[in-house]
């Protein structure tokens, strides 16, 4: 099977200063609240080690059967300006895709412009590329909702 790849950028302006937003982006309890792409999906952090060289693991999927594993490895944490990490999605013991993700946080007024760049390699076919993008777009909608519910 050929390797399918893509990359995309998403930009959001959020009403938190960069230091607070950086925390919301990297803290496990916050990620569980905003990281799933929709109301029918859950993200459960099983292991958190947010440091350069650290590795996180979480499960995601339907609320009644979160069967996808995601291994995250942190490569650069320059709080509050940027974070760089990879995510590998494992399903039924096999890697389905790996992505390189970069968060870029820039002060904008009283808030932050968040840039998210994702480069994806799918090992299971081109449909996975669209699913990854849809997952990120849904997660960022949830992030915006989550951030708006926090005390500013």
TrEMBL record:
Membrane spanning residue stretches: none
Location of the Activator of Hsp90 ATPase homologue 1/2-like C-terminal domain: 16-146
InterPro entries associated with the record: ASHA1/2-like_C (IPR013538), START-like_dom_sf (IPR023393)
SUPFAM superfamilies per UniProt: Bet v1-like
A Pfam family assignment: AHSA1
Family: Belongs to the AHA1 family.
Protein name according to UniProt: Activator of Hsp90 ATPase homologue 1/2-like C-terminal domain-containing protein
Source organism (scientific name): Boseongicola aestuarii
């Amino acid at each position: 099977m050929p390797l399918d790849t893509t990359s995309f950028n998403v930009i959001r302006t959020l009403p938190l200063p960069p230091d607070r937003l950086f925390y919301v982006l990297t803290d496990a309890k916050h990620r569980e609240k905003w990281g799933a792409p929709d109301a029918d999906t859950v993200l459960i952090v099983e292991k958190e080690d947010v440091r350069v060289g650290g590795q996180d693991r979480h499960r995601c999927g339907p609320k009644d059967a979160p069967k996808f594993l995601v291994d995250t490895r942190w490569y650069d944490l320059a709080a509050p300006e940027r974070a760089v990490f990879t995510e590998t999605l494992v399903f039924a013991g096999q890697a389905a895709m790996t992505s390189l993700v970069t968060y870029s946080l820039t002060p904008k007024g009283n808030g932050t412009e968040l840039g998210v760049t994702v480069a994806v390699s799918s090992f299971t076919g081109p449909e996975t590329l669209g699913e990854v993008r849809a997952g990120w777009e849904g997660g960022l909608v949830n992030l915006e909702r989550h951030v708006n519910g926090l005390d500013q």
